[in-house]
Specification:
Oligomer: heterodimer
Number of strands of chain A: 5
Number of helices of chain B: 18
Largest sheet of chain B: 7 strands, mixed
Radius of gyration of chain B: 27 Å
Radius of gyration of chain A: 15 Å
Number of helices of chain A: 5
Helix content of chain B: 25-40%
Distance between the termini of chain A: 46 Å
Largest sheet of chain A: 5 strands, mixed
Helix content of chain A: 25-40%
Strand order of the largest sheet of chain A: 2-1-5-3-4
Order of helices and strands of chain A: EEHEEEHHHH
Chain lengths: ~160, ~700
């Protein structure tokens, strides 16, 4: 057992872990934040995507011991003070989801992507999102939503 | 079957009326009225199914709508609320959908077959219309006015002759409990008076889903809950011979559970549970492999002898003789997984002798029965709760994971969560069957189809009634129980994807052989006016006559499913060097009768097309007998962002017609539309799905 310190959605946490468990288990089971989903356990589908130090990662592929000192953001940490993030608003307005199970991962991957690629083209979004899977087939709407959100995020930065 | 359903219906209604609070309640159950007399919706399904609805206008003016259907992304949480709001004249945001809870909702067999909009929708509309009439009666009494002078605006009853007379539903229902059973056909609104039906309404559950607040079965956390891991064999259908659990002592707090063929461990930490399960050595007796993904087609043809004639007319020999062009071909389609991003999950707990379960199931009432039967419990001791599903597509129609979780919970004495791993999902999914379709078709010198012989192995007859006018025809189905090496079942428009691929590919082949373009050939052979209009709308929207660049091709496919007619035109680019296909654009035209929510129908169509590209181009389960070689998405490619074409959905305008199915129809045409477009682009005719680059290159050489 090992004590690890990190932040989840801005909140500092200290947790005793066995080291081999995944970040996904830490978030979903130990911390009971269930917005992040299990889809494949092999980093193939992206449903479990969260940000670690602003980089989108597959939480099912990260060991708990490797999050020492890291800043983690999950879907629950995206909206601030009850106000939805531009990505969440854009996913709603474009109806970029159906069953919603891939949605947290899609939004978190898009968030990480937009932090590095403000105002991207459709082609660039497709490349950046390619490894996230959606079985319901909302891809085109997700691309539209990311473009809309990217523009909104730029506006907010300028303000 | 009927009597079982009747018992379940009676039980759920008794329960519902008992637990009910105040307000105006309308109960709609068949038995009092015949469904077909109300809605004249012809379907053989009506013999076996029962459609019920409960509706409650509460004392605060909000409306509870109870349905045994579930929400899995198909959008009925929105479209059902839409029709209720329409008839009740309230805001759609004042409606709370209570779905799939076996103690609160009326009995429902399951959410499948694109049945909801066709059958539940009119029932709820009727219940809402009846509730509106009851509320108008109450208002008339309250004002001492004539009911005919009253109208409802957003949940407030107003006297048209005296604007000072207005009263909200909430005030009318306060302190009252009025239960009304629907006994006569209520006055439904005409299409010209619709305020909501036919308008695009965005998904009402989107905010819950983008914030991570929407709860799925694996998001339920119970006090003292343990995570179960089942020890699985490598080969489907194996029987356990010997269990060596001696290494379990390495894992503190782990509990072993064994019953018949089920071996599981539970622990409060899912990772410990997994590791502990891995330490158990089981000797299995595995069935001998009879086929793999390459030999399965010949195996099916050789094994299955029994056949049934589904449709027959004229004389096949005569048809062949009068044909100037006659072509025969055999089409193959491999096994496909449902591959919902959410795997099968169940979370459950016992309280005394009663179990409560949250399960990713398309059939809450079926799950209740299955669990009660497996655990030998009375039905009323099993409660399935409302929950979102992370996709279904037919794959969550069975209740295996719920039975497993319930069994484990009973044996270990703790609340249990069971989340199938992706590997388990790729073994216990009830796959879309591999299938063979043997087709012969011929046309005369005028380009009129004269003969059609269609033998279907394992894909069923759904949607195969010929809409082309052909005087000499025969459709046969070949099937046999237990012929597949693992479980098979309904996959979004069962069988229809495969048979539509075969039929529409073959129509194309005959058209090209006759030197007639596939659009004209189809129009020349169709007799169904609705289908002709649907195809013409697709061709016009697509711009079928516009010029193509080299390497690009167009493909048409027609089909019918769940009462809806589909015409699809695809444009693809094929790289002749690599055989890679890039879908460019797909136009889908549908005659689905009344389109309740054009936005929701568009989402379902886009989704069906996107999913369909997967089965057409990439998806195929690899196996040797019951041993699955495909265990995760790294070996099972589904459609991704980059392969999604531009999609345009158009609907025939028929607001006064009955609504037809919307969740499944569009997907059936994707395989053939893509196959025909590939042929048009590069001359490769591929007879087997998925149409992989290797198969295209082989067809070209």
């Amino acid at each position: 057992m090992k004590q690890i310190n990190f932040t989840l959605n801005g909140k500092p946490l200290s947790l005793e872990v066995k080291c081999q468990e995944s970040l996904l288990t830490v978030i979903r089971t130990y911390l009971e934040q269930t917005g992040t989903k299990y889809g494949c356990g092999l980093g193939e589908c992206g449903a479990c995507t969260v940000l670690v130090d602003k980089e989108p990662v597959r939480s099912c592929m990260i060991l708990s011991e490797d999050i020492e000192g890291k800043e983690i953001i999950s879907i629950e940490g995206l909206s601030t003070e009850g106000e939805l993030h531009p990505l969440q608003t854009a996913f709603i307005s474009h109806d970029a989801l159906q069953c919603g199970f891939c949605t947290s991962g899609m939004i978190m991957n898009a968030f990480g992507f937009l932090l590095q690629n403000p105002n991207p083209s459709r082609e660039k979004i497709i490349v950046g999102m390619e490894s996230n899977l959606c079985r319901c087939g909302a891809y085109n709407r997700i691309v539209d939503a990311i473009q809309t959100a990217g523009k909104e995020m730029l506006k907010k930065v300028k303000l | 079957m009927k009597s079982v359903i009747k018992n379940e219906t009676a039980y759920s209604r008794r329960r519902f009326l008992k637990t009910l609070g105040g307000g105006v309640v309308v109960v709609f159950c068949l038995g009092e009225l015949s469904f077909s007399s109300l809605f004249a919706q012809d379907s053989q399904l009506l013999e076996e199914l029962d459609f019920n609805a409960y509706l409650r206008v509460k004392e605060d003016g909000r409306v509870d709508c109870f349905t045994g259907k579930i929400e899995m992304g198909q959008g009925i949480i929105t479209s059902l609320a839409q029709v209720v709001a329409e008839e009740l004249e309230v805001s759609i945001y004042d409606i709370d959908m209570i779905m799939g809870d076996t103690e609160l909702c009326p009995y429902d067999a399951g959410t499948w077959g694109s049945l909801t909009t066709r059958f539940t929708d009119p029932v709820l509309r009727a219940a809402a219309a009846e509730a509106r009439e009851v509320l108008l009666d109450l208002a008339a009494e309250h004002f001492g006015s004539n009911k005919t002078s009253l109208e409802v605006i957003q949940g407030v009853v107003v006297d048209k002759n005296d604007s000072s007379k207005k009263i909200a539903y909430a005030e009318l229902t306060k302190g009252k409990k009025i239960v009304r059973s629907l006994t006569k056909k209520p006055e439904l609104k005409k299409a010209k008076d619709f305020k909501l039906i036919g308008k695009p309404i965005r998904s009402l559950d989107a905010e819950a889903k983008v914030t991570g607040k929407a709860k799925y079965s694996g998001d339920i956390i119970l006090p003292g809950m343990v995570h179960a891991t089942i020890v699985r064999p490598e080969v489907f259908g194996s029987k356990k011979i010997k269990v060596d659990a001696s290494k379990l002592s390495d894992f503190a707090g782990v509990q072993l559970v064994e019953k018949d063929n089920l071996i599981a461990v539970v622990h409060s930490d899912p990772e410990v549970s997994k590791q502990a399960a891995n330490s158990i050595q089981v000797t299995w007796d595995a069935p001998v492999a009879k086929a793999n993904q390459e030999t399965i087609f010949q195996y099916l043809e050789d094994t299955i002898q029994d056949n049934k004639v589904f449709e027959k007319e004229g004389n096949l020999q005569l048809g062949k003789e009068v044909s100037t062009i006659y072509r025969e071909a055999t089409y193959h389609d491999g096994y496909k997984a449902h591959a919902s991003i959410e795997t099968h999950v169940a979370t459950c707990y016992f309280e005394g002798d009663k179990i409560t379960i949250w399960a990713s199931t398309q059939s809450p009432f079926g799950t209740r029965s299955s669990v009660a039967k497996a655990l030998q419990m009375p039905l009323e001791k099993v409660h399935i709760k409302q929950i979102f599903l992370g996709g279904g597509f037919g794959g969550k129609s069975n209740s295996q994971q719920s039975i497993e979780a319930a069994t484990i919970a009973k044996l270990c004495g703790k609340p249990v969560q069971l989340v199938w791993s992706r590997k388990e999902e790729f073994m216990y999914d009830n796959f879309r069957t591999a299938a063979v379709v043997k087709v012969a078709g011929g046309t005369d010198s005028k380009g009129k189809l004269k003969v059609w012989d269609f033998d279907i192995y394992c894909a069923g007859t759904r949607g195969t009634e010929l809409f082309y006018a052909i005087p000499n025809k025969r459709i046969r189905t070949f099937n046999q129980a237990d012929v597949h090496p693992f479980g098979t079942g309904a996959w979004r428009a069962p069988g229809n994807n495969t048979t539509t691929f075969a039929r529409e590919s073959h129509v194309d082949i005959v058209a090209h052989a006759a030197g007639i373009n596939p659009l004209d050939f189809r129009l020349n052979n169709l007799e169904n006016k609705e289908m002709i209009a649907t195809l013409q709308l697709a061709a016009k929207t697509f711009g079928y006559d516009k010029e193509k660049k080299p390497g690009y091709g167009y493909g048409i496919a027609l089909g019918q499913d769940a009462g809806t007619l589909v015409a699809m035109i695809a444009e693809v680019f094929v790289d002749k060097e690599t055989g890679e296909v890039q879908p460019i654009r797909i136009v889908c035209s549908q005659d689905m009768g009344q389109v309740v929510n054009p936005h929701g129908a568009t989402l379902q169509t886009e989704g069906g097309i996107t999913m369909g590209i997967g089965y057409a181009l990439y998806e195929e389960i690899e196996f040797n007998g019951g041993e699955m070689k495909t265990t995760n998405f790294n070996r099972y490619e589904i459609t991704r962002f980059s392969k999604t074409p531009k999609i345009e959905c158009v609907f025939i305008d028929k607001m006064d017609a009955k609504p037809q199915g919307g969740g499944e129809p569009a997907i059936i045409c994707v395989g053939a539309a893509i196959a025909n477009a590939i042929f048009d682009a590069c001359g490769a005719r591929v007879y087997r799905m998925p149409i992989t680059p290797e198969r295209i290159l082989a067809a070209l050489s």
